[in-house]
Specification:
Layout lengths: L2 E3 L7 E2 L8 E6 L2 E10 L2 E4 L11 E4 L12 E9 L13 E5 L26 E6 L14 E6 L3 H8 L6 E6 L14 E4 L2 E10 L9 E6 L4 H14 L1
Antiparallel strand pairs: 1-13, 2-10, 3-4, 3-6, 4-5, 5-8, 6-7, 7-8, 9-10, 9-12, 11-14, 12-13, 13-14
Length: about 240
């Protein structure tokens, strides 16, 4: 399957500063690798495939421009909780939780984003958005300033047909007959619908971001709520 892991925002625009206070930049020694989003004071959610290669060391929070980062906005990763059944993006379960070395201090520049409270079923053409620091064109490079693009949810049957099958528990939105979607460097960021993080950027088609002929695919967060709750409870007990 011609999927591409890690995926920047195509045909979008710069996000207004302080508009997405939950966004996280997951970084290695070489800089930005993936996106993520703050779901509690000490946990960031992202895609499991962002752990490959295993070089993530830190998370930058509450920052619109990742070029010059204030030390106070950096948190190191204490532990990674990758879904135990994850193998690759083509088989799904592309979800991971990162326990931060110390709690984030929530303020007017940094907030969490809510997850769905129960399993959801998004209607066709539901308007959502995705943001990230990824490429803004095929073969480009990551950008310093956060970018955002509106995308519409695609019917699951259409998505399966266009891909010739997709993993269970995914949401398809953007790409496919539009020039809007994500690209390399956006992976792990949230698909946000009505103020809720409903999806995680998982994969697109063959690194072709400008004119994608397949829908973009996201992990459906609502299908993993029991797993998420288990991890959060387990870590609280051990504190």
């Amino acid at each position: 399957m011609g999927v591409t892991r890690g995926s920047e925002i195509i045909d979008g625009e710069k996000a207004p500063e302080n508009s997405m206070l939950y966004m996280a930049s997951l970084q290695s020694k070489g800089g930005h690798v993936c996106g993520g989003f703050l779901i509690s004071e000490d946990f960031v959610m992202t895609a499991a495939h962002c752990q490959v290669p295993d070089n993530l060391t830190r998370v930058v929070l509450g920052t619109h421009n990742i070029k010059n980062v204030d030390e106070g906005k950096i948190r190191y990763i204490e532990k990674m909780y990758k879904h135990e059944s994850y193998q690759n993006v083509g088989t799904g379960k592309d979800i991971m939780l990162l326990k931060l070395s110390r709690k984030a201090e929530l303020n007017n520049k940094l907030q969490t984003i809510p997850l769905p409270r129960s399993e959801i079923h998004l209607g066709d053409n539901t308007k959502c958005y995705v943001a990230g620091w990824g490429f803004i064109k095929t073969g480009g490079g990551v950008v310093n300033e956060l970018r955002v693009v509106d995308v519409s949810v695609i019917n699951p049957r259409v998505c399966r047909e266009m891909w010739g099958g997709v993993p269970d528990n995914v949401i398809c939105a953007g790409g496919y007959k539009t020039k809007k979607g994500f690209c390399q460097g956006d992976s792990g960021g949230p698909l946000v619908c009505d103020g809720t993080a409903v999806g995680i950027v998982s994969f697109n088609w063959e690194k072709n971001c400008n004119y994608p002929d397949k829908p973009n695919v996201y992990t459906d967060v609502s299908k993993y709520l029991p797993w998420i709750k288990t991890i959060l409870k387990r870590t609280k007990r051990s504190e």
